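Bumping with the actual sequence this time:
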Amino acid sequence: MDSQRHPPPESGSGAPAGAQIGARDWEYEAWEGLFYPEDLPGEWRLAYYANEFRCVLVSADRLGQADPADVRGWLAEVPDDFAFLAEVTLPAGERPRDPGGDWLGRLEPFGERLEGVLVRWPAAPESGARLERLVRRLAARYTVWLEPPPASEAAPEWVADSGAGWVWPGPDAGNRPAVLALVGPGQSGRRKLGELLQQVLTAAGPPGRAYVIVEGDPPAMEVLQDAETILQLLGA
C-alpha cells in the first residue's frame, strides 16, 4: 500500500440539514477501493465519509467499544453540521437495575452533536420491563426511535408516555420532531428509493428533519449515492 496520505475530498454533496443520508457505520473493508482510496489511512476514513454524506448511525458495537477520547476524535474529524445518530441495544449478560446508565455514559461525550438514538426493539417478551427503563432514561435527554415498528398500531402505552417514538413508517413516525427511516438491501432500486424518500420527506413536513440510514454488510454505496442524487432532484 502506498504510504502517501490523501486529504479528504474537497467538497461534499451539499444536502441541506432538513434531509440527510447516511450509513450504519463507516468502516467496511468492502468500501476500500470502491469508496475509500486503497491507500487512505484508516484514521482518515470518517473525515472522507463526512465530505460525501451528512450523517452516520454509530452502531451499538462500535459505541460499546469506544471511550470518550474516541468520540471526541470523531467530532473533531467532521464538519460542525454533520449529524451523529447512535444505535443502542439492551445490555447482554448481567441485568443491571438501570440498563440506561451505561449507555448514557457512552453518549455523553457527543454533547449536542448527537441528533438522536435508535433503540433496537427486542422480540423477547421478558425484555419488556428492561426496555422500558432503558427507553425512559434515554428519551429524557434525546430524541429516541424504536425499531422495528409494531406489527399493529397496538404499541405499549409507555412508549408514547416516555416521549419516544417509532422509526418510519411506525404509528407515530409523522408526529415526531425528526423522522428516521432505515433502508435495507431489499429496498434498492432508484424508483423504489425515490418513492421512499418522497414519503419520508412528506412525513417530516417542511419544518421537520429527516434521516435516512442505509444498512447492510456493507451498506450499498450505490444506494447511498443514488439517495443523495434523488434528494438533490427533489430539492430537499
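The C-alpha cells above came from a reply further down the thread. The beta strands are 19-24, 55-58, 83-88, 114-120, 144-147, 165-166, 178-183, 209-214.
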